[in-house]
Amino acid sequence: MAEIVEVHHLPKPSWTTFQMNYRRARQIFFTIACICFSEIGFSQSIIRLGASADKHNILLGEQLVLTLKAELPANAPPSFFEIDSIPHFEILSSGPIDTITTENGISISQQLYITSFDSGSRVIPSFNLPRNRRMVTPAITIEVGYSQPFDPDAAYHDIKDIIGGETQEDLNTTWWYLAGAALILVLILVYIFDKRKKPATPVLVKVNAYEIAMEQLKELQQKDLDPKIYFTRLSYIFREYLEKRKGIYSMQKTTDDLVIQLKELNIPAEDFAELSQTLRLSDYVKFAKYPASRQEMDESLHIIKTRIQAIDKTTTNEL
Fold it and tell me: Does the pLDDT value for residue 48 go beyond 60?
């Protein structure tokens, strides 16, 4: 008996099925292409803003460098920060605006040299571009103090004795010094035993440091001087008064050393802050780092005058 074999024929694809598959493939292709081109366009139009400070702890009046940076796409109009003032900070000077062309567009940066005369924790706020308020730079916290914070992790060094020594040349000339000292001693003895002069009566001059300081401040206020000379004279009057009235010797010391000495006078905190700021402002004007106005000159003289009056009153009460 012959075996019957069934043969099944696959249906031929119709024209309609071919068109549907073509449209589906074209949609998938265009979707992938749009995603790729949108990613490329987005990466080329991104804007980055940045701000950084070279230090986060400063003394009153100490300078720090604030760096601002903006990365813009090539097709964007050039734009940069417009900063006239910063709360609690003084802008001492502004560096040039540097523009660099990169693969993704342009990079613009600038350095601002700033300081602060307000003690405490101060914040440099966020900045934005003139035509873009949605993107801002990060805020930066700066600690402003009277002295550098104590570092407990710093290494301690033992105090070593001074090691002295004499060279052969010193030994050869030692006898000359001994002979000179002996001669001076003989002359002193001769003078003591042979003098016939009557002792001179010393003339005592009573020096009132407070009155001298007030008179000098009055004369300084009436003069039209250059700010550098004015603040140099103002600082000298205050230091001379402290030396004669309180025994605080600061003529050869820095302003920071003087501020540390003033803490011993127990001046109220607000008055102490104003006095410290005035002394540091004097340094900035004397070294041509800050152009002072006539109003600032008068205010500084008033602060020095009132602090001298307060110190003198406290000293009189103690006596």
Answer: yes
Q: Does domain 48-145 have CATH number 3.10.150?
A: no
CA distances from residue 31 to 7, 21, 39, 121, 250 in whole angstroms, order as listed: 43, 16, 12, 53, 79
Cα–Cα distance between 68 and 80 in angstroms, integer?
Answer: 9
Q: Which residue has the higher pLDDT, 21 or 119?
A: 119
Nearest to 307 by CA among 241, 219, 215, 225: 241
Determine if residue 142 is left, alpha or beta; phi over 0 gives left, psi from -120 to 50 gives alpha, anything else beta: beta
Average pLDDT over residues 85-107: 88
| Domains of the chain, residue spans | 48-145, 209-318
Work out the pLDDT band at 42, boundaries 50, 70, 90. Answer: very low
Would you tell me the crossing angle of helices 269-286 and 255-262 to the nearest 10 degrees? 170
- Predicted TM-score of the model (pTM): 0.38
pLDDT digits (tens, 9 = 90+) for 126-153: 888 887 777 789 999 999 987 665 556 6
- For the record, the structure tokens of 90 come out as 């003084």
Q: How far apart are CA 79 and CA 183, in angstroms?
A: 83
Provide CB contacts within 8 A for 232, sequence distance 6+. Answer: 282, 286
Q: How many CB atoms lie within 10 A of CB 79?
A: 14
